[in-house]
Write a structure and sequence with these properties.
CATH topology: Arc Repressor Mutant, subunit A
CATH superfamily: Winged helix-like DNA-binding domain superfamily/Winged helix DNA-binding domain
Helix content: 55-70%
Number of strands: 3
Number of helices: 5
Distance between the termini: 42 Å
Strand content: 5-15%
Number of domains: 1
Structural class: alpha+beta
Amino acid sequence: MSPEPQAAFRALADPTRRGILQLLTKSDLTIAQISAAFPMTRAAVRKHLAILEDGQLIRVIPRGRERVSRLNNKGLQPVLDFMSELDAAWDARLNTLKSAIEKDMP
């Protein structure tokens, strides 16, 4: 499995942070642009961005006096890897159950 997905899951756990990620799928944004989309202060948005950055779901790029947030597609890979492992485990269990049911059928 890839590196621990804990920080990414923590970042994804909050609906505001998921909303920020959805905004960033459309374009790179400054803190001011992100703040305009949510009923909270810039300081609160900065905290959310810091958690998203810690989870490697975004990259913050300095441009002059501004800091631009950009979606980091590779940051979701540990989450996808973890979910794939769970999916494979469930597939195996369901296949075992299916085989058992089919074996007992006349």
